[in-house]
User: Which sequence fits this backbone?
């Protein structure tokens, strides 16, 4: 019975102030969602940093690429003047052979797939806002990564369906299919075993879907600070022709790309750079440079989200303080408004504790509704931990915003209540 | 042993410049079954005294003894249960909750006493029959006349069979005839053995009581038996 009256009191309080209560719930909901977003961001950053660190350990990370403005060097290479192709190939071998580091060939490309049904989000440079559109609408230039075999093992990349690349996938015989592994978002479009026609570096190939990557697979890429998300990428092996007497355009273009990649090493930047330069000198290859920015990849991983995170945290803190204050002030208003009624309750045998319970109950109800909604929304949108985060946050807000009203109630003078009508 | 005793009761409100000595060294003994009127000018401390007797507030100093228990040293929870079990309180403004039905208003003390639903229904029916409100239980206070409201508030005050019935200007908001009817209810309660204390301005009402305590400036000016 006694719980019954407290509950009735809470419901009456709620009904009397429907709109205010509704606004408070919305406010609490927004706050709870914000803390979930913050938590989610921290968790995501943390997991991608820890995943990345787990794979490279205490080693540093550098990336190698050619000078994109060196047009003369590039055209000389493509014409294979003075055996430039052989020199670069030797340099590539040196990179791969070096014992004090691991060289991973990984770079972004586009491949042209003959399929009209590919949505724009897969197009090359879609995220930069300038997707490449082919003249022929049935052919699409889509984002692609070529990888050497060790990329999968070094970064713990797996497939969610199908199989990973095997040694023979990196050697191409005429007439074979090129095996490709598709990013998670391709699942709705292509299926395992499907054969696609397409062009890669002006050469026509048939591609075969051999697997799909799990959602949120990230791979570090040359020229990119941090990792890239592979959900909208096609991953293909950095393959070469098996038997090739004549040096073709494809050989030259693909080698040029394969030399771009990342180095994982214990060496410091100066040592890596010194070795690279020495190899270039020894092989006579055209200029490739190594970049130290990659060594800060972990820092950049965190700092990318850090700026966004700190903005979220500011908004969250201000909104939370505002919410706690609103609840306190609103409930305090209810108390003043209900002085007379409280007097009647006390006259009828209620203890001051009853009033305290009613106040706590009202605040708890507000927070429970906000908790329930934000748990569900948060679970779908942010993370499975949303209910836990929301619960902890709701309890803290409920406690903090109860302090002031409870103090007011405790000071209520029973003797004074009735005379105040 | 006296039923109810006030010993050297003082009550002070505020501090410093705002200090008001509402009661100054009050000593009263009240026996079981008395019908008492407390009179005096506005601001002389009548309500303050009644609130202390009713356990709504505590004296600043002095002792309030009720059937051998020292109420003045009770804490808030003990006071609440003391009020619930022993005191029926009626005030000039009726003190009904406007958005509760008459039934719910009357049931309030029974709920605080932890009674079961069927007991509450039975008791409220008894009370509304007695107060001639049987057909008004689902009404809200605003739909009732002043006399009906006051009868509802008396019904609520009587709900838990109190030992002492306190009324602070119970007829102040009512016309003469309705006031008389209310007063007759008090008289019949008193005849049933209940101790009744009425604070009033109205000398005619006071003259109907057995004992009259006249207050002046927070002290007892006169205390005499009328019958
Ligand atoms: N809560 C309070 N705070 C401050 N002063 C108070 C308080 N309650 C009563 N007083 C003062 O105590 C004195 C006695 O007040 P009380 O209400 O007991 O008078 P009363 O005799 O009931 O008057 P009335 O006939 O007008 O109801 C008054 O001067 C009043 O101003
Ligand atoms: Mg008074």
Assistant:
């Amino acid at each position: 019975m006694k719980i019954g009256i407290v509950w009735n009191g809470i419901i009456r309080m709620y009904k009397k102030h429907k709109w205010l209560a509704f606004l408070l719930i919305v406010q609490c909901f927004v706050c709870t969602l914000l803390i979930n977003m913050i938590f989610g961001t921290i968790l995501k950053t943390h997991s991608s940093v820890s995943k990345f660190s787990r794979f490279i350990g205490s080693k540093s990370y550098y990336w190698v690429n050619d000078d994109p403005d060196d047009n003369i060097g590039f055209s000389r290479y493509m014409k294979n003047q003075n055996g430039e192709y052989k020199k670069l190939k030797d340099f590539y071998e040196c990179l791969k052979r070096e014992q004090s580091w691991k060289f991973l060939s990984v770079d972004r490309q586009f491949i042209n797939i003959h399929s009209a049904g590919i949505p724009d989000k897969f197009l090359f440079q879609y995220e930069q806002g300038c997707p490449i559109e082919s003249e022929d609408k049935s052919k699409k230039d889509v984002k692609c990564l070529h990888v050497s075999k060790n990329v999968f093992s070094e970064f713990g990349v797996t497939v969610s369906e199908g199989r990973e690349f095997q040694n023979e996938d990196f050697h191409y015989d005429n007439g074979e299919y090129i095996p490709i592994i598709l990013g998670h978002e391709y699942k709705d479009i292509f299926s395992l075993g499907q054969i696609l026609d397409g062009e890669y570096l002006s050469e026509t190939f048939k591609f075969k879907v051999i697997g799909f990557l799990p959602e949120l697979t990230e791979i570090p890429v040359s020229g990119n600070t941090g990792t890239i998300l592979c959900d909208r990428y096609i991953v293909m092996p950095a393959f070469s022709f098996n038997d090739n007497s004549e040096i073709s355009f494809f050989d030259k273009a693909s080698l040029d790309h394969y030399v771009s990649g990342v180095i994982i090493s214990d060496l410091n930047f100066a040592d890596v750079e010194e070795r690279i330069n020495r190899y270039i000198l020894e092989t006579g290859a055209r200029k490739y440079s190594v970049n130290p920015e990659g060594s800060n990849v972990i820092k950049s991983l965190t700092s990318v989200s850090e700026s966004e995170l700190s903005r979220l945290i500011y908004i969250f803190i201000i909104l939370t303080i505002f919410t706690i204050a609103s609840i306190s002030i609103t409930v305090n208003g209810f108390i003043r408004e209900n002085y007379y009624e409280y007097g009647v309750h006390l006259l009828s045998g209620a203890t001051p504790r009853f009033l305290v319970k009613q106040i706590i109950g009202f605040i708890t109800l507000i927070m429970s509704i906000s908790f329930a909604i934000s748990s569900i929304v948060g679970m779908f949108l942010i993370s499975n931990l949303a209910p836990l985060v929301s619960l902890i946050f709701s309890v803290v807000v409920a406690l903090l915003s109860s302090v002031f009203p409870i103090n007011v109630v405790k000071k209520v003078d029973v003797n004074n209540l009735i005379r105040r009508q | 042993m006296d039923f109810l005793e006030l010993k050297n009761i003082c009550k002070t409100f505020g501090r410093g410049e705002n200090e008001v000595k509402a009661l100054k060294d009050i000593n009263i003994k009240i026996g079981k079954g008395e019908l008492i009127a407390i009179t005096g000018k506005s601001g002389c401390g009548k309500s303050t005294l009644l609130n202390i007797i009713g356990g709504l507030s505590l004296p600043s100093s002095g002792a309030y003894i009720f059937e051998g228990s020292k109420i003045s040293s009770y804490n808030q929870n003990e006071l609440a249960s003391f009020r619930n079990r022993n005191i029926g309180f009626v005030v000039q403004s009726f003190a009904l909750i406007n958005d509760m039905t008459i039934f719910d208003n009357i049931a309030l003390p029974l709920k605080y006493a932890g009674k079961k639903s069927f007991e509450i229904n039975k008791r409220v029916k008894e009370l509304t029959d007695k107060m001639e409100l049987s057909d008004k239980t689902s009404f809200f206070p605003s739909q009732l006349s002043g006399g009906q409201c006051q009868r509802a508030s008396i019904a609520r005050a009587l709900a838990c069979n109190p030992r002492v019935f306190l009324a602070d200007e119970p007829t102040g908001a009512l016309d003469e005839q309705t006031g008389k009817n209310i007063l007759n209810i008090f008289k019949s309660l008193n005849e049933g053995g209940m101790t009744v204390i009425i604070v009033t301005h109205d000398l005619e009402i006071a003259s109907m009581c057995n004992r009259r305590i006249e207050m002046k400036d927070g002290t007892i000016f006169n205390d005499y038996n009328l019958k």
